[in-house]
Design a protein that fits this description.
The protein is an all-alpha fold. The chain contains nine helices and no strands.
Length: 198
């Protein structure tokens, strides 16, 4: 690796981390600006991992801009992020890119591509369990429960909910505990137990 390649790869890593901060603080314009700065550098110096990260940035930008009703373009960017890294030895990055693709399919348009999302989520869950990545297990289980709820499949939601709650507790993800409680309230509502939905 030349000195220039090494310098630009470090620069790309810094920009990616900046975008993560701006994503968490919902600074859309800064995300968009950085992504445009990254594009030509990724095209010249980017490795498959850099390319995957770049398209991941575009997906995160799409999530913020489109308010979780994702466009065809954002789903295509998620596909590119996954394809750039799939088959590599960066198993954790592969799993997270595939998770992002699953999420994109889940919230694509008004109805989502639920079969595509489910296929990817089950694969990610298997990878996460094999690697012992509790956070990714929790995220995958949470999205699977949401997917089954969107289908109206109360049996699968009910079966999955104990795993969702256990993984959310183990990974200390309060937002997933809240989602699990919402799913539990939905199940109680279906049973006609309105008092338990409060």
């Amino acid at each position: 690796m030349t000195a220039a390649e090494s310098w630009w790869r470090a620069w790309l890593d810094i920009q990616h981390n900046r975008v993560m901060l701006y994503y968490r603080t919902n600074q859309i314009q800064k995300m968009a600006h950085i992504s445009e700065e990254m594009r030509p550098i990724v095209e010249i110096y980017g490795t498959p991992l850099d390319t995957s990260d770049f398209y991941g940035v575009l997906v995160q930008l799409g999530i913020r801009q489109e308010r979780s009703i994702l466009s065809d373009e954002t789903v295509a960017n998620a596909q590119k992020a996954y394809e750039a890294i799939a088959g590599s030895d960066y198993l954790l990055s592969v799993a997270f890119a595939r998770f992002m693709l699953a999420f994109a399919h889940l919230v694509h348009g008004w109805y989502g591509d639920l079969d595509e999302a489910e296929s990817h989520l089950l694969a990610v869950l298997k990878m996460a369990e094999e690697m012992g990545i509790i956070l990714l297990c929790a995220r995958s289980l949470n999205l699977l429960a949401l997917l089954y709820r969107r289908r109206g499949d109360h049996r699968r939601v009910s079966t999955l909910l104990p795993q969702v709650i256990a993984a959310a507790r183990e990974s200390n993800l309060q937002e997933y505990m809240a989602t699990a409680e919402a799913n539990l309230a939905w199940l109680k509502w279906l049973e006609g137990d309105l008092a338990a939905t409060k």
